[in-house]
Amino acid sequence: MDEPAVIFVVDDDEVVRDSIKVLLELRHYQVCDFGSAAAFLAARAGAAPAGCLVLDIHMPDMTGLELLRQLRREGDPIPAILITGRRDAATQAQAQSLGATALLDKPISHPALFSAIEQALKRP
């Protein structure tokens, strides 16, 4: 039997991260959460995880877009759902160019998040 897909939540805002984690666990998803892009990269340690990312764009040190760009350079096709409190045309264009499944605005609509995750997990 296949391993269940894991949703990796990467957000520097602990309240947002915890609320997304609880929400997804209530929907019976397996969730691993990280407070920074560096923490996610360290935990992943070269193994391409199965599942998808829910990734905040605006984080200190390494933004969500920078993390996704690095993963793509390494050949990691993991689906990513980007979340932001400050959307603009440039951010939207970068998200699309990196193959993001969705770009969601904070506060996050629960139905939109669930729909984006279901779509991301159906990707080959």
Q: What do you see in this structure?
A:
With 124 residues, the chain is an alpha/beta fold. The protein has one domain (6-122): Response regulator (Rossmann fold). The protein has five helices and five strands, in the order βαβαβαβαβα. The protein has a five-stranded parallel sheet, with helices on both faces. α4 (89-97) links the parallel β4 (80-84) and β5 (102-105). The longest helix has 13 residues, at 14-26. The mean pLDDT is 91.
| Number of DSSP strand runs | 5
Helicity, in percent?
40-55%
**Roughly what is the average pLDDT, rounded to an integer?**
91
CATH top-level class? Alpha Beta
CATH topology assignment: Rossmann fold
Largest sheet features: 5 strands, parallel
Separation of the first and last Cα atoms? 17 Å
User: Structural class, judged by helices and strands?
Assistant: alpha/beta
Oligomerization state = single chain
Radius of gyration: 13 Å
Strand content: 15-25%
Helix-strand topology string: EHEHEHEHEH
